[in-house]
Structures are given as C-alpha cells and as structure tokens.
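Service request form, structural biology core

Requester: graduate student, group of Dr. S.
Request type: structure prediction, single chain
Budget code: on file
Notes: please return the result as structure tokens.

Sequence provided:
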Amino acid sequence: MELKIKALFFIFLAPSSLIIAGDSYATDNVIEHTVVKGDTLWDISNKYYKTPLHYDAIKKNNNIKYDKLLKQGQQLKLISAAFYPAVVTSIEGDAILLTSDEKINIQQGSLVNKGDLLQVNDSSFVILKFINQVEVEVQPKSLVIFGGDTVSNSLNITPSLRLKQGAIEIKVPPEEKLINKLEVMSANLILGVRGTNFRVKNDTKITRSELLDGQIILYKNNNKLLSLDWGKGVIYTHDKNDLVVSELNDKPVISNINYDGNGIGIYIGSTPIETEHKIKVYRDKEYLQPIYEDKNKQGYFYLKNNFTNSEDVYFKLTSFSSNGLESFPLYGHYTKPKIKLSVQKNSVRFIFPYCNTSRRLQISETETFVISAIDKSEIYACELLINNLPDKKWYWRVYEGKSNNREFDSGDFTISSEY
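Core staff response, request fulfilled:
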C-alpha cells in the first residue's frame, strides 16, 4: 500500500533537512558532576552543553524525580558532547578520506572528524562507530560529508552526516535517552528517524529511506508533520517535490542452496517476474563486516569461492519493490558440505558431496604425509573405494581443482579387524 503526499509544503530547505537516529548512551563517554550548593539542572545543562535546554535529559539519565531534590555532594552523570572522532572499525576494498589537511587512504582504526569527506569506491564497504556507539555502514560508490549546517547542530552535541550520493545503513543502540542522536541529511528531504536500524539511499533524482525498526518523523522547520512506524519506506522525488510512503516487502524466501566445489548457488523462491534481488556476503557470523554484494533479476545468485573461502558462509538477501524500496533482509548461513567416510574391514569408502571436478586423494601413516601409501587421482568421481588397508590409524587429505592444488578436506580414520 502506498500513500502519496505532495511535498510542496515541507520540502525545500536543505539546511533543515535531516534524518535523526534514535538516542543512545555511551558509558565510556561520561562526565561526572558533583552537585554544589545552589546548583540547578538548568544551570548544569548550560555549563556542560552551552544551553539550558537539556536539563530534562540530565534529569532522566540520573533518575531524578523532582528538580528540587538535588543534594549537595550528589554525583550526576552527563553524556559528553564530544562525539567525534568516529573510528573505522572495518573496511573492505578502498576508500579515501579528505580532511582539511590531507588525502588519506583509510584503513581499520582510522579516525574521522567533523568536516571530513569520505569517498567509498566500487565494491568497497566502510564501517564507522561514533563515541555514542552509533554504527554507520557506508556502502559502495558513496560520498559522505561529516558534520554540516543543521538546525540542532547549533547545540554542538549531535554528530551529523550529509549523504551526497550512494547508500548508508545506520544502527543505533536502543536505549531511550534524550541526547546523543545522529543526523543524516540528503537532498532537501526533511525526515526524522528515531529507531535502531534504517537505510538511506540518495542519487541525483530520488532519496529513499527504509525503516527496519523504530519510527520515521517528517519535519518542516523542526515542526513534526507526520510519523511512520517501522516497516515502511519513504521515497522523495527531487524534481516533483513529492513523497511516496509505502510498506516494505517481507524478506525473500530461498528455495534451494547447493555447492559444486567452485561456488555456492542460491535459488530464490517464487517471486514476480523481473523482481530485483540483492545479496550481501559477510566475513563474520555477527553480520558486521560485508565483503561483497551483487544485484540481479534472475532469481539466482552464484557466489564463487573467492568470496566464500571459509567453510561457513553468511549473507543477507533482500528484494526490491517496483518503487525501488528494499525489503526486510533474510539472514542466511550455509555450511559447505564435507566428504563422508564409510569405514569397513580393510577398506574405506570416500563419498564426495558433488561429482563435477577432479580430485587427488592421499592416504598416509603420518600427519605430515612424508610418504603416502595411497596417492590417487580421479575425474568426476562421486565416490572412491580404497581396499586392502592394514589395521592402523590412517590420515587422509583430498585436493580439488584443475591442477588438484586446492586442499578441500582432510581427516583420519582407523582400520580394525573388529569391523
């Protein structure tokens, strides 16, 4: 279901354009204040934040029921206003950081400060974490400016991003605090998000925002106009000055996965013809470090071994609606199949998970394979039987590939006359 809204009344002013991520609290970025005689929350807020307007945040963060109950000597904890620098926690591929002084090829551990510009190249990803624990994933072909002229930036306590082009995904800790937000600005779109997980995509014609959790709020000059719950997306067309609000599609369904030795084939369940899907492969089971992504309309992805070197493959799969909004993700995990052994009296049978490759089997009395008792190569074999093995513990390994130079699996087995 789509809701189309003419945006003439509340889209135009770029300096007021923002997306605000939900609040968070960083325990390692706290200022302690000891209450002295005459202190008020109003004065304390003005002292640390250069504005008295955050007295209510101090009150809530310290579980103070009544302002007049402040006691001399009481310890108050305040969130520091210094959120920069952000730190690069992960990078895949190449990205450039332009500071006021230099041009840097960033790496893990690099620091990003207010005023810096980040350019992420093709097939590359950068993960950033602010001091307030907000995480930002900057995706391929993206250009982001840190800091910017926004209404709330006059308070100097909110980090902000201007997404010039490309796509970012933002995760905000779920704690409900009144300060520590993140602003994301894109072309003329006045949009506020308070939630834990959302995506923003921007090009020269269209800005899209997809909320996976939390709430979207549309603003005009800091006045709330419309709220949207999680599970919806907003599409803003720049030249027409209108918004389309639409529900996100549910996560896709996988009908089959198989591994043929060279890569993994992932088949997507029944979807409308010409539906575009995207797959993103991750290095870790926490889905924190993306290493590869691909899009197509074939209903099928083939992940070659150079993107899936480990035994376990972790990926996210999404689909796109006709209006370009990306769906909820399906989190996938696939463990590559291994060789099965059937040990009998004086023999062992190797059963391979697929047949369409050449293999070399070595069996030795020692783990170092200095001398192999068996060294046998086969092409397109589905299984291999080795007979006449004496009673003892044996070690084995199997190589695959055109030159039999890729070790696929290894292990040991014991031959016993008791079988």
